[in-house]
Each structure stands twice: as C-alpha cells, then as structure tokens.
Amino acid sequence: MQYKIQNGVVELSGEPILKQINFEINDNSKIAVVGRNGCGKTTLLKLISGEHKIVKLDSDQNSFVAVSGRPNIGFLSQMTFEDDNRTLLEEVRSAYKDILELKQAVAVAQEKMSLTNDEDDIKEYTNLLDTFTNLGGFYFEREYEAAIKKFGFSDIEKQRKLYEFSGGQRTKIAFLKLLLSKPDILLLDEPTNHLDIEATLWLEEYLKSYKKAFVVVSHDRMFLDNVVNTVYEIENGKTHKYVGNYTRFAELKKERRAQQLKEYEAQQNERERLENLVDRFRYKATKAAMAQSKIKELERMEIVEAPEYEDLKTFRADFTPLDIGVKDVLSVKDLKIGYDRVLSSVSLEMKRGDKVGIIGGNGLGKSTFIKTLVGEVSALGGEFKFGPRVQIGYFDQQMAQYSSYDTVLDDFLKEYPALTPFEARCALGAFLFTGEEVFKTVDMLSGGERVRLALCKIFKKRPNFLILDEPTNHMDIASKEALEEMLQNFEGTLLFVSHDRYFIKQVSNSLLSFGEGDVSFYKYGYGEYLEKQKTVKPVTVANEEKPREKKAYTTPLKEKARKEKAIKKCEEKIENLEKELASIEEELLKEENLSDYIKLSELNTRQAELQESLMLAMDEWEGLFD
Predict the structure, then answer these.
(1) CA angle (244, 180, 224) in 5-degree steps
(2) Distance between alpha carbon 54 and the CA centroid of its chain, in Å?
C-alpha cells in the first residue's frame, strides 16, 4: 500500500491554505503532522481522507495524489452510528465484524471436523484457525474490554443505548470504534485532547503495536515522542519531512535551519566577491576574459535560498507577584470533595514556591478539588486554609468557552477600568493581541485565543498563587513552551491540573495523583511517579516441554503403535496449551491487570507464544494422519 501527494495545493474559499504538499504514507508508517495553529494540519488530514481535493496548477509543475492498493482510510469526522438503539458494547464489537464471522466459521468447522475426522475438514479447520489467530481472534475481546474501561466507560454504561449518551461521550465511542476497526490508514486529529493520562497511555501502547499506518496531528510532545518515527512539519504552506520522533525533529529542524543559513550567507559573500570582480574588470581589455568567466560562474551557481520565515511569535508575561506572600500557602486536611457523594479525600501542605501538578483519570475529582479550593463547590468534609496575604489567580477550562460581544480591548478594560487604552493595549500585545486584533469581539476568538485573553487578565493582577485547571488545552506547541517558561520562572506558588505529561514534567516539582478512591502525593514529582508505576511482579510461565527424539520403527505393528502414542501425546499437548491459553486470557481480564501495562505486555507476549505453539501442535497432529 502507498499513498502519495506531490506538490499538492489546497484552496478554501479561493485562498491557498496548503501551497506545496509532498507527503507519503506506506505500510506501517507512523507519522506526526506538526505546525502552528492555523497552518493547515487538519486540512491535510481532510485531503488524505478525500474531503478536500488538490487544485490544478497553472505551472508546469507535476501535481497529483497517487494511491495504490485500495487502502481503507479511517477518519473520525466520517464515523457515524448506523443504529442509535445499539448498546455501547454492540457498537464497539461491530468494529470486529470480520473476526466475529470468522469465529463462528471456526466453531462450525471444528464441530464438523470432530464428527467426520476427514482430512479436508481438518485442513479447512486449520486454515480458518490460522486466519483467526493472525487477525487477533484470541485476544480481541480482551482488547475492546480494556479499551472501553480505559476510555472511562463503566460496565453498566456498556449496556446503555447509544442515544442515551451525551455528544462528547458519543464522540469518544466513535473514536474508540475507529481505533478498533484498524483501517489501513488511521487519521487522528488531536486524539489526546480530552483523554486522561490512563487513556492516553492505553492509546500509546495501542498505536505502538498498530500493524498498519497512522497519521496523527497532536500538540502532545511526549505522546509524539512515544509513538511516531516520522514527522512532517507544515510551515508557510509547505511540508518538510524529518525522520525520528518529535524530539529528534526539533533537533534536526534547528540543525537544518542553521546549516541552510550558513550556506546562504557563505554563498551571498561569494556572489558579492564575484560581482565586485566583474564590476571592477569587465571594461578592461586585459581582464575582460577573466570577468566573463566570473559572470558564467555566477550564472552556473545553484542558488541557496535563505531560510524561510519561521513563525516564532508567542505570548509572554515576565511578572513578579505584587506580594511574595508568607511561607505557609495552603493547608488541606482530609478534605472530602464531590457533589452528591465523596469522590476523594485530599491532604496537602503547600509552601511558598511549590509547584504541584495534579493528574488522574476523568471523574476522580481533580477539577472538583480545584473548584472546592476557590469556593465554586462546597466541601463534603475536612478542612482547608490559605495562608495570610495569599492572592489567587484562577483559570478554569470554561474560560476557553467564555462568550461576549465586547471587543477584546473593551473586555479587558472592564476588568481593569483604571487603565488607559494605551496601557491595556500594551498588556494585550504581550499576549499577541496587536493591531486590529484588539477590535475583534470575544465571540470571534478561537479557543486558544480565549485562553490567552484569560491568562492575560490573570497575570495582570500579579497574584502570588496560581491555580490553573487544564491551561494548555487549545494551545499549540510553541504556546505550551512559552507558558512552561513563564511558570518555571514564576516566583510564587503554583497548583495546576493537566493531562499533558510533558508539561507536567517540565513545570511541576511535586505531584498529586488521583486514583480510584485514593489520592497519592509524590514529593519528587513526575519522575518518582513513573518509578512507582514500574514496580510490578514478573509473570512466571512454565517451561514448554521439549519434544523427545523420534525413534525409528521397522515393523508395521510397531509403526501403528508409535503413531497412536504420538497422536495421544500430541492431543495431550494441545489440551495443555489450550488450558494455559485460557488461564492467560483470564489473567488479561482481571481488574488489577487492566491498568498494569508492563504485566499486560508480558501476558500478551506469553499469549502469542502459546498461540504459535498451539498452531505448531495442530500442524503436528494433522501430519500424523497423513
């Protein structure tokens, strides 16, 4: 399979969004598409999916989209539910239509084989079982059960009808089905945006072992580092290809630009030297030939272009708190948080300068804890107390949905009426609201722009305690890096919720992890948290019995006895392998193992070994009837 775009141009409303796209997908491609917000990443995915077409070029440049092998392309925007009366479980299982049909065929063939003992029936059963195994037939049920759990759906919700779910939940179900349907080319647009860390980790492991091609647009740098081996950057409407993960891409891009600039400057100096020689000697008879040779040298020179403009614009806020505050900032003791029931109980002590990140699964109380601290939700028990002179700057996810018909400038001045328009524009300019941008209404802003406006208002107050709930949602990578730097240099205290592991690792020095009914504190941050997650017991498996050497029999009677004994031994071996496989499958479905990725990996490895051994044993058993 191959999908290739050469010199692709895409226009929307007559305006070119993508100007020169060169892009290639092959079997097993693991590709990331990166670039600033608005550069055309989603447009490229829609071009690949067939929603957009390339435009015909007026130039002689060859432009085309070439596809070989008739690949099945999966894109979330094209996913629909055929029947809203299906349950969640039925909808997810429908992604395995081929395996389910094959499973039924294997059962029928097995029954037929056991009744007839016919050679053709045995071969048919073996061939079907082989195909079933290769398609993942022995583990597909465990796969979707784990996926449903990791995506935050309970056993009760598995039996709910699709029409009973909210729009956001329906999107997650459609996304889950898309993943499990395993298209030849899987297109993912910001897949981790609304997934918690557990679901993101599951998705990482799934994509690592994905046997077909995928193209992912994401601002999650750690996710990209863990799953891709090729990066295409869209810059100024053009694609640039880099081999490696995101970290390697960043290094190679820096090296490429530095080398290109060096070569460009060297060539410009050489051209200037040659042109000076030509200007100096072209009208002197004794030097005319030399001048002509330099002119030809200039004409033959292959031009090195200057590095293209790189959009490095981002917001900034180098501020210090108005009041640095006292040493003891926050004390939380057995704080019971929740609405109609207790989600978690939290105890925490924060000192001046602490930067505590909060992680955990959806629905476990992370945002509820934050809202309780700022007074938006009442505590169900316990207590918390802020230190004297604490000045809070609070950001929550709803600020990205804030709606207003006011202009950006007027909206900001409502918050700070004592400022002059010039002072307000200076403050807004630091967050990229410059020129005519300040006269946009708030309703016209993108999610990322609304986040910037909210942060601008918060930082203008110069608080000494920042409480932030998912501040990086809607941000591109450059903006995340800018916020990281600001928070790293912040002299006050910070408490924040985030699903972005890279952001957490860069900013926090301690970690609060919300689990099922418990909250753990990691004094040394994300590194300590990762180490604790790695502590698992190794899976022990029995050594596979080695086959004994075959003995030679010379008489028909001895040969018959040997054959019957070999058949019996082979059948016992098959039975033992099937029992061990069943045991492994039970382990895979155990509640405590579903979130233990190291153990799951070891169990999956052993399962694959047993399946291969079972197939060899079946082949051996079949051969004994020849």
Answers:
(1) 20
(2) 27
Q: Which two tokens stand for residue 236?
A: 């100024």
Distances from the Cα of 92 to the Cαs of 195, 212, 542, 590, in angstroms?
Answer: 18, 20, 35, 20
Backbone angles phi, psi at 518, to 5 degrees: -140, 155
- In this prediction, residue 22 carries a pLDDT of 94
CA dihedral of residues 216, 219, 224, 230 (deg, nearest 10): 60
Q: Phi/psi of residue 494, each to 5°? A: -135, 130
For residues 285 and 610, give the distance between their C-alpha atoms in angstroms, rounded to a whole number. Answer: 88
| 550 contacts 396 by C-beta, under 8 angstroms | no
Task: Say how many Å lie between the first and final Cα of the chain, rounded.
Answer: 39
Can you spell out the DSSP letters for 390-413? --EEEE-GGGGG---SSBHHHHHH
Tokens 């294997």 belong to 106
> What gap in Å lies between CA 63 and CA 8, rounded to an integer?
6
Distance, CA of 57 to CA of 7 (rounded, Å): 9
- Bridge-partner residues for 393, per DSSP? 466
Q: Is the pLDDT of residue 27 over 80?
A: yes
Q: What is the CA radius of gyration of the chain?
A: 32
Beta pairing class for 15-26 and 2-12? antiparallel
Q: Using 50, 70 and 90 to split pLDDT, how confident is the model at 95?
A: very high
The residue ranges of DSSP E strands in 433-586, in sequence order, are: 465-469, 493-497, 510-514, 519-522
Gap between the Cα atoms of 115 and 119, Å rounded: 12
Closest to 569 (Cα-Cα) out of 545, 552, 551, 553: 545
Q: What sign does the CA torsion over 199, 200, 205, 208 have?
A: positive
Please report, for residues 234, 290, 573, 596, the alpha-carbon distance to residue 136 in angstroms, rounded to integers and kept in the order given: 36, 74, 22, 21
Bridge partners, residue 238, by sequence: 20, 235
Separation CA 400–CA 393 (nearest Å): 16
Whole-angstrom CA distances from 98 to 47, 80, 94, 467 are 28, 19, 9, 49
Residues 6+ apart with CB under 8 A from 468: 394, 395, 494, 495, 496, 497
Whole-model pTM above 0.85? Answer: no
pLDDT reading at 273 higher than 90: no
| Angle, in degrees to the nearest 10, between helices 246-281 and 288-300 | 160
Two tokens, residue 320: 């210090």
Q: How many CA atoms lie within 13 A of 382 on its CB side?
A: 21
* Three-class DSSP category at 340: coil
Provide mean pLDDT across the span 218-233: 94
Q: Of 232, 234, 238, 213, which Cα lies nearest the Cα of 8?
A: 238
Predicted confidence at residue 616, as pLDDT, reads 73
Q: Is 522 helix (H, G, I), strand (E, B) or coil?
A: strand
483 phi/psi in degrees, rounded to 5: -65, -40
Closest CA to 236 of 309, 306, 304, 305: 309
Q: What is the dihedral sign for C-alpha 427, 428, 432, 437? A: negative
- State the angle between helix axes of 197-208 and 140-150 in degrees (0 to 180), rounded to the nearest 10: 150
**Cα dihedral 155/160/166/171 (nearest 10):** 70
Task: Annotate 124-138 with DSSP letters as a single string.
Answer: HHHHHHHHHHHTTTT
Distance (Å, rounded) from C-alpha 449 to C-alpha 292? 57
- Which residue has 């018909």 as its token pair? 405
Token pair listed for 47: 């071009």
